[in-house]
Design a protein that fits this description.
The structure is a single chain. Helix 1 packs across helix 4, helix 1 packs across helix 16 and helix 9 runs parallel beside helix 16. This protein has 16 helices and 2 strands. The termini are close together. 71% of the residues lie in helices and 1% in strands. It has a two-stranded antiparallel sheet. By secondary structure, it is mostly helical.
Length: 355
């Protein structure tokens, strides 16, 4: 699990919580109204995915995610001098695309748990997971385009480009699972597509809807892209060493899926005895018919080799490096100082979170 190190940012938890809560409060009614447009049973399946109802259709207050992207979209609007409400359609559109990707990813990865609950495909079947994911993507574009403004058209172009890159990243991620070796550069490119692109869109889409020019939007995207890489680096750490009580996923989650995440790739590239032992072991795993029956001790041993080879420390440092690059881009954008401070607070939160 990532922990604070010397030089790690100090996060004001109360401020970040307030920003995340504002994002939820302003975007959730619009998000619910969008989901209500779906034909049955997709509306119910989507409501279950978002944590609004349980598997039996009863209202619940289950965890609906961190809501980092909606929070960023609202602050983005303020960066352009517009009220946060201007960014709400963008916030909801990005959240719909994000959840489209989660529904499909859970099915492709075989994940049975998300946010401490059974995933949609496990409860409602693979067909509904695919259909509802497709429907959420269509809704995202519909919500933006029905605004009928030039700014909405610009925002939609950025969202569709980000979505295409996200899909590219998922395709790369899947293909890497079947390769013995993936370079650090390939892994960063994949994670930039899979996570960085949509986070970059979230940080710019509110500004675009608020009338920001392309240079401002591009710089905000640069901030969001590197923030996304920091976010994913932390996710990769949590995917191996995260506390299941906090993450809602199994122990050694990414190792169970044979993911070539940053800690694994960095460990394999490091050289040395632990790196070589890990490479031999993972090569044997790829050919093993008994992988699904591995014990906790088997996965713990692989995690220990990754750490011994330096993969854990390298990934922690990469999260901080990407955070630094993101903040540098942010300082090239002219915006009110309080807005800049809010974006920095959310960036700091990304690199010290535990779930």
């Amino acid at each position: 699990m990532p922990t604070a190190h010397p030089g790690s940012p100090a996060v004001d938890t109360a401020d970040v919580t307030a920003l995340l809560e504002r994002g939820r409060t302003l975007s959730t009614p619009v998000l619910r109204a969008a989901v209500d447009r779906l034909a049955p049973p997709m509306d119910t399946v989507a409501a279950y995915h978002f944590g609004w109802i349980d598997a039996h259709g009863r209202p619940t207050d289950a965890d609906s995610g961190k809501a980092v992207r909606p929070a960023l979209a609202l602050i983005s609007a303020e960066a352009a001098g517009a009220p946060p409400e201007t960014g709400v359609p963008g916030a909801v559109a990005v959240e719909l695309v994000h959840n489209f990707s989660l529904l499909h990813d859970d099915l492709m990865d075989g994940d049975e748990q998300r946010r401490h609950r059974d995933t949609v495909w496990k409860v409602h079947g693979p067909a509904q997971a695919i259909l509802v994911g497709d429907a959420l993507f269509a809704l995202a574009n519909e919500l933006l385009l029905e605004l009928g403004t030039v700014e909405a058209g610009r925002a939609t172009r950025r969202l569709t480009t980000a979505t295409r890159k996200l899909i590219d990243g998922q395709a790369q991620d899947i293909s890497y699972e079947h390769r013995e070796r993936v370079t650090v550069e390939e892994c960063l490119e994949m994670e930039g597509n899979k996570t960085g692109a949509l986070l970059a869109c979230a940080v710019s889409i509110g500004a675009v809807l608020g009338g920001a020019d392309d240079r401002t939007a591009d710089k905000l995207e640069e901030f969001g892209y590197h923030l996304g890489l920091a976010f994913q680096a932390v996710d990769d750490l949590l995917g191996i060493w995260g506390d299941p009580e906090a993450t809602g996923k199994q122990t050694w989650s990414d190792l169970r899926q044979r993911k070539k995440s940053l800690p694994v790739v960095a460990a394999l590239a490091a050289g040395g005895e632990a790196s070589e032992r890990l490479a031999r072991l993972l090569a044997e795993d790829a050919k093993s018919n008994e992988f699904d029956s591995f014990s906790e001790e088997d996965f713990a041993y692989r995690a220990a080799l990754i750490e011994e080879a330096g993969g854990r420390d390298w990934t922690s440092e990469e999260a901080r490096r990407q955070h630094t690059v993101a903040i540098r881009a942010l300082h090239e954008v002219d915006m009110p100082a309080p807005v800049r401070e809010q974006l920095i607070a959310l960036a700091d939160f990304v690199v010290v979170r535990k779930k």
